[in-house]
Request: fold
Amino acid sequence: MHTLVVAATAAEAAHVPASLPLVVTGLGKTAAAVATARALAALPSLEGLTVVNIGTAGALRDDVVGLHEPGVVLNHDINAEVVRSLGYDPRERLTVGTSEIVLATGDVFVTDPVVRTRLAAQAHLVDMEGYAVAWAAHEFAVPVRLVKHVSDSADESSMDWPAMVEASAVVLGEWLRENC
Reply:
């Protein structure tokens, strides 16, 4: 088995072991999906490959801290009910593991308490890339793991993300050394 590590920013990937291949996608779902798909398409073989998306996440609930490997990721900024009513399956919810932790992904950098409360009703964590990386991996029939470290509370404290990312990067690097 071999691993392809995918991270949104170089800051989040600062402690990825040099022995692991790394793709830095940029922020948001579109950049993450394109960069992940491009990297997978360029590989000579996908046999035995696992994509591991590492990164920071906002906690949507006050009791959620530390490192998590979500079992479900959802696309929180698609109007899934309307799309479904038009006869299409938006596949807004992807199963990526066995954990009960749910990660909500969207292109909104969550700082608003109203948005946080709405998302907390359906998820534990929020990020901007996990769903897109999982989607790309699923489309290539490659297993994916999402590994997220809580960097903030998805509220006004999120604006301090640049100061918090190093602590998360250290923990994510340690996880990779132990698990990949």
Observations:
- The first strand starts at residue 2 and ends at 7.
- The beta strands are 2-7, 22-24, 49-59, 67-68, 72-75, 93-95, 102-105, 125-127, 144-152.
